[in-house]
Amino acid sequence: MPPLSSIIAEYQPQGVLEVGRDRHGVSWAAIPDLVEARVVDIPDREPWVAYPEALASELAGLDVPLQLVIDHAFAGPATASSFIEVLLGRLSPGGRYVVDGVLPADALLQLMLTTVRSPDVVEQVDLLPRTTVLTRGSRVEWSEPIRLDELTTDPFGIGA
Amino acid sequence: VLTPKGLLRYRLANTEFVISDSVGDSTPTEFRVRKSPEAITALPKIRGLLRFRNVLHVVDDDLGSVALTTLVGAPSAIVAVSTHVASTEALEGFAARRGIADRMHVHQGVSLDDGERLGRIVDEEFDGESGLEVVIDDVSDRLATGLQLFETLFPRLTAGGSYIIERWSLDHFILEGILAALGPEDRANAHVMRAEGVVEVRDAKGEVLEALLPMLVSALRARPDIVARIVVSQQSLAVTRGTAPIETPFRLSDIADGLGDPGNGS
Description:
The complex is a heterodimer of chains A (about 160) and B (about 270). Chain A has helices spanning about 5-10, 50-60, 75-90, 105-115, 150, and strands at about 15-20, 35-40, 65-70, 95-100, 120-130, 130-135.
């Protein structure tokens, strides 16, 4: 993943949520004070599914729009999609969701195909060798958490 | 600013662009373009990739799209490669009015499978220090032609250059609109018309340009020094050329060797 400071400099978010796993990647020393950040760290021994409530609680305390999520915590196809489903809807339109690591191919292709049917949810997928950046689309209202499989179609079986 | 003027008309820098299937009646100040409203309104999003770059724009007979790309992207130079032979009067008039005739050239009647001619055009037109920095494939709508063009032109990009495919999702996009109007049972039984007859939708997988996507993802994972970045949105797919030299003939399948599950990269 590019350095956190350069991600902050590029997107200039007001509110940031960083989800770490067992203290991995949580590194805020060089971040300007103007950014309001919340950090949730998920210990390795804890199942990730216990954390949507913790995430919601952290986000409730954020006084500015959430414009950047940095996710170091996913651990496989199910968790990758589920974290995105929980958190993408919390981002402000145009906000970025940065996945630090290599997303499973099926989850990645699903996100790319989501841009065709639901660009108002996932507007853009930017794939780098070890980082994926999603741009949240302009849709204002949706039920939470979102369900990517309901927002995506794959008529030709590209992601199969 | 690209401003809509009604449903099918847009205005930019004193030039109008009208969506039309017939693109032959353009003038230097009013072009007919064969693009969807979604494709036109998405163009400013790739402006950052085009600005002050040397661009090769591959089109059919829709030369109005070259004028639109020029105004939206403000490239240093733009070379249009057209698969058709049509009047260039409107585009030449457009270039002359804007004083960019020396930076806009058109090559017509170029077959997409004529790699030798395409290579010659790149060598002749982009022999300066900057080289070829951006390719826009605005013509391919099938996997075979899109892949062939990519394999011919992607190796000729400079390191860090962008290869943009505009119609990567066109089949999916159109089909999406049709399927949305059907009930679940009809959707499950949907078929598509191909040259060889009617086939089930999934049997068209080997033909649709969208099938390039998993190959590119696999190539990025296997050789990020060749495919360095992929940016996907509804109306464009942009692939960044890495820094490694590419041996020709280049075959994407040689570096895209399957999509294994990478596991946890954290």
